[in-house]
Amino acid sequence: PEDLGSEESCKSCPRGKFSGGTAASCTDCSEGTYAASEESTTCSFCTVGKFGNITGAVKCHDCEIGSYSNQQRAQSCSSCRAGTFGTEVGQTSCVPCAMGTYTSDAGATECETCAPNTFTVNEGAKKCVSCGEEEYLSPDTGCTKLKVTSIPISKEQNNPTAGGGILTISGTGFNPPESLQIRAMISGQEC
To answer: How far apart are CA 79 and CA 72, in angstroms?
Structure first.
């Protein structure tokens, strides 16, 4: 603490320090607090989105892009966790990655778009996933097991001149217009 001297020669505390009114000395503001002006009798808390990591601070600092602070008197900011990102300084929370995007890194400033034929199961994804063999991607249900429906194929069915039919593959959650139809092959000829 800094000595203020006798009552006749009182000095005001400099910025970053405070004196509790009748105290004869000044004390540094603790981490997470600050005193912006001289003659402070208390230190102010750093507000959300800011931090103070030194004693005797005269101001608090904004959290950097990709980090946040959601409490007063923070001594540091937290990195946005994987699956979230930050785009501004002084954030109080991070934003989850939207469906179809992800980030596997903490402290991200943006999310990456999933590669073709991959997807995310929900918002805030840390990675994209792809469907396994014999599965298809449904926008409503994610990966769904294929259900193969056999249809007898004959010259009379669907294409009498070529001698074939249509094989329909469907899965739970398929709406009729979304059914996948594959033309059948008979004796190496397309039907």
So the answer is: 17
CB atoms within 10 A of CB 46: 24
Kindly give the parts of the chain with pLDDT less than 50: 4-6, 8, 155, 157, 160, 162-164, 167, 169-191
CB atoms within 10 A of CB 149: 9
Question: How confident is the model at residue 121, as a pLDDT?
Answer: 83
Structure token digits, residue 22: 């009748």
Task: Tell how many helices (H) and how many strands (E) occur in the chain.
Answer: 0, 19
Residue 157 burial (CB count, 10 A): 15
How does DSSP classify residue 63? P
Where b means 16+ CB within 10 Å and e means fewer, 162-180 reads ebbbebbebbeebeeeeee
Classify 88 as helix, strand or coil: coil
DSSP 105: S
pLDDT value for 97:
97
CA 160, CA 20: separation in Å to the nearest integer?
99
